[in-house]
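Module 6 notes. Inverse folding takes a fixed backbone as the condition and produces residue identities as the prediction. Think of it as a translation problem where the source language is geometry and the target language is the twenty amino acids. Below is one complete input and output pair. Work through it position by position during the lab.
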């Protein structure tokens, strides 16, 4: 079936589906005749499971581990329950801080933010987490993208250097020489462009978007 049908059956967007494919959580087969993705009811079932777990706040990495048999459902749910309990406590602290700010007679221009930040730092030392926990996921994805991009760039530059050394020992026709130099450079530029776009998507909240249904 086509992705439009899957979108209706699972009630998630095409962007969600593509995102989970990129994460390796679902792998629809390709139609040998046209190369398009051909989804099956098994893929739909997997996406339903992913949707369920994501709505409970389970990370893509934990879902991947469960699919691989490295993490049991029971263990994952127990860990997620503990995580939600910690988040709930964090939220209570944030609510208390909001109440304090609401009761403060100061307005935006006169509020003494340093005093509140100092108080929050003390709470953080005790284990309270005020920042968005999804930032860690974004940082992990960004690091992976940068690492993959750097590896490919280094590889292409190595290919170009090897080609130039070969040409120095045995000069090639000018056309071949230009292609041998231009092709790696074009690929490197393409990698940089794609990498920048990927980092922009992550910074723009792609992971947050993929958890919306």
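Target side of the pair, the amino acids:
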């Amino acid at each position: 079936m086509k992705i439009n049908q899957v979108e209706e059956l699972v009630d998630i967007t095409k962007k969600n589906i593509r995102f989970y494919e990129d994460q390796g959580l679902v792998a629809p087969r390709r139609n040998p005749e046209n190369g398009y993705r051909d989804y099956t009811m098994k893929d739909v079932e997997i996406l339903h499971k992913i949707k369920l777990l994501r709505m409970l706040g389970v990370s893509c990495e934990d879902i991947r581990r469960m699919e691989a048999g490295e993490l049991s459902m029971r263990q994952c749910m127990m860990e997620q329950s503990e995580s939600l309990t910690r988040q709930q406590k964090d939220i209570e602290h944030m609510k208390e801080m909001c109440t304090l700010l609401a009761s403060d007679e100061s307005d935006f221009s006169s509020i003494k933010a340093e005093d509140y930040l100092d108080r929050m730092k003390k709470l953080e030392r005790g284990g309270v987490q005020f920042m968005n926990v999804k930032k860690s996921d974004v940082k992990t994805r960004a690091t992976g993208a940068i690492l993959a991009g750097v590896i490919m760039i280094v590889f292409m530059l190595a290919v170009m250097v090897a080609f130039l050394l070969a040409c120095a020992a045995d000069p090639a026709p000018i056309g071949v020489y230009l292609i041998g130099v231009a092709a790696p450079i074009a690929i490197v530029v393409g990698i940089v462009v794609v990498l920048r776009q990927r980092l922009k998507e992550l910074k723009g909240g792609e992971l947050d978007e993929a958890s919306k249904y």
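Reference fact for the lab report: The beta strands are 29-30, 37-38.
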